[in-house]
Fold this sequence. Notes:
Blueprint (H helix, E strand, L loop, with lengths): L3 H9 L12 H15 L8 H15 L4 H10 L1 H10 L11 H20 L4 E6 L5 H11 L3 H8 L3 E7 L2 H9 L1 E3 L8 H7 E4 L3 E4 L1 H4 L2 E5 L12 E6 L8 H14 E9 L13 E5 L2 E4 L2
Parallel strand pairs: 1-2, 1-7, 2-6, 7-8
Antiparallel strand pairs: 3-5, 4-5, 8-10, 9-10
Helix pairs in contact: 2-4, 4-5, 6-7
Amino acid sequence: MTVMEPVAAAFGEGMPGVSPGVYDERDFHAVAEIVRGEAGIVLPPGKAMLVYSRLAPLVRNSGRGTFAAYIELVRADAEERRKAVCALTTNHTFFYREAHHFEHFATEARPGILATLNAREPVRMWSAGCSSGEETWSLVMTLLGADKREGHAITRANLRVLASDIADHALAKARAARYPVRDLEAVPADLTGAWTRRCGGEDAEIVEDARSLVQFRRLNLHGDWPITRQFRVIFCRNVMIYFDQPAKERLIERFARQLEPGGYLYIGHSERVSGPAEDLLQPVGPTIYRRSH
């Protein structure tokens, strides 16, 4: 069976409620090509209906009427292309996801970070593909720890956390740092007790001292990185599952070179290091790697 056949099957009898004159197989392939070239994201044939549902509002708002006409706009207009790519990204995450990463960070990475900060040296960390912020705030709370006095001292040190994502709507939620209290239940209670406060009944927000550490930035991991410093820690989890193998290997190598020697890279449970980065990264735990030189 060729790659084209599942898409043809999806469109063969027409998609329920969708006119072939509005959206067809050629439109799906055109969108898939644009998204792969722009952001490295691979849209398999089974995503034909997802593409329609995510882009239909943009097609309507553009006044173009059909996907074919909208695709012409996307090709010509960088801002509209950005909107389309954002609409097709998946932003599923939750607090303290893959808890062993935060436990390893607390026991293995944090002591060295505190020693560097106590020596008045800078430390930089990166939550890459931060989505709606749950990973970033889990990392920040784990770094600050349950001792509020120690944590407040950390917030005054030369420490910054970069949190980046390609999707503007995800970054807006991450910056707001406000979540339903039930979403924070997976985080150790001593950390939420120290670094969150109740607001609006069933919601909680990250306190300002913790929020001051984080700089949110829109960044396409597939494009240029306007970054000069190296990082002590990089979290990039469950992002590369949407890329093909060459794109994954290029990204892992770029992360490895962006790490300080001895710095840690944390990736998703189904992701692996392969390619040129294997010469730079040593596995030190489940989906945890350390730059060796």
